[in-house]
Specification:
The chain has about 190 residues and is an alpha+beta fold. It has four helices and ten strands; from the N terminus they run ααααββββββββββ. The longest helix is centred in the middle third of the chain and has 28 residues. This is FHA domain-containing protein.
Length: about 190
């Protein structure tokens, strides 16, 4: 009995799928990013799937990672993009309309102490309103930029409709609110 050697690799069919292209991997990553942006994936799920997509070796592995994230067609994206643009425009229009109606808050002169804002009479700007904390916020010039810092207020400080967590850079024309008391920042 003779011993037969295994067939040489050149005589066998290649059973491995073709290597993933960078474009295929990038498309899958785009679908995952869009799914996270639309709230279809939690942060942890998004991060885990991104790791798996980067480690994937086959197309079916990528397909499994994005199978539950149906992507909209071109028409749907166009309609949703248009609605988003119109919605964004109406928000800007409303903000511009309100801005002209808001009382102005002059930015302090450079070189002055930070402006403390709140209900306490010792503040530089005293606001007697139930939604304003005793020591609510502080406005100061730092490195040539105006910085608005929330000082742990109960009802929050916002800039252009977004709540300030810690501090935010502001400029003339921005809308600021301390609780429910709103102003439009203005330069001297």
């Amino acid at each position: 009995m003779g011993v037969t050697s295994p067939p040489s690799p050149s005589s066998e069919f290649d059973t491995h799928a073709a290597r993933l292209t960078d474009a295929e991997r990038e498309r899958a990553l785009d679908v995952l990013r869009e799914g996270a942006a639309l709230g279809r994936l939690s942060h942890d799920t998004f991060v885990r799937r991104m790791e798996l997509a980067l480690a994937a070796r086959r197309r079916d592995e990528l397909a499994a990672l994005t199978a539950d994230l149906r992507t909209e067609g071109r028409w749907s994206r166009m309609v949703l993009g248009t609605v988003g643009a119109v919605s964004g425009f109406t928000v800007k229009l409303r903000r511009a309309w309100q801005s002209e109606r808001l009382p102005k808050l002059l930015l302090p002169a450079p070189g002055t102490y930070p402006l403390r804002i709140g209900r306490d009479p010792a503040n530089g700007l005293r606001l007697s309103h139930d939604t304003v904390s005793r020591v609510h916020a502080e406005l100061s010039l730092q490195g040539g930029m105006w910085v608005l810092r929330d000082l742990g207020s109960t009802n929050g400080t916002s800039v252009n409709g977004r709540r300030v967590i810690g501090a935010a850079v502001v400029q003339a024309g921005d809308q600021v609110a301390f609780g429910q008391v709103a102003f439009c920042l203005a330069a001297d």
